[in-house]
Amino acid sequence: MAPPEDARDAGQRSRARMAIRNRRVANFSIRSEQGAWVTAKAVRRVLGILEDWQYRPDGDGVREIVTFLVRAAVADGGRRVSIHVADEDSMALVTVLSHCAGAPDDDALLRSIAEVSSVRSCGTDAAPDGRRVWALFDAGPVTSQRRAAGAVPGL
Description:
This protein is α+β, with helices and mostly antiparallel strands and about 160 residues long. It is built from 4 helices and 7 strands; from the N terminus they run βββααββαββα.
């Protein structure tokens, strides 16, 4: 699973649409005006998605990662945030889009996300449609249900 990349078009830099293929994907939006509930809702939904996919994620780690990502997007000032979740090989990718142009790069945010023990990679990019922040992390062990169903290669 590769993180989002920029594309070159006629010599101008433009952001490529995020494309995730051949793996499970889920996405949802939350209105930013919902205040403190935005982060709690996002954490609950991401944990639910990973559990539906038969992972046993580290709840505290996922909570910390999603909180960093969502708070950054909400701070950008957009009316909503979009959250995208994908998985591959026991790794999860969570990407959050702020839908608000002009968000600054934030190296401190990336350092904070990278310090979470389960994070393997993280990044950010900005474009006219808003800032996109993402983290790739261990989704946790697969449940015995998924292992028994043969849904995990090599197990």
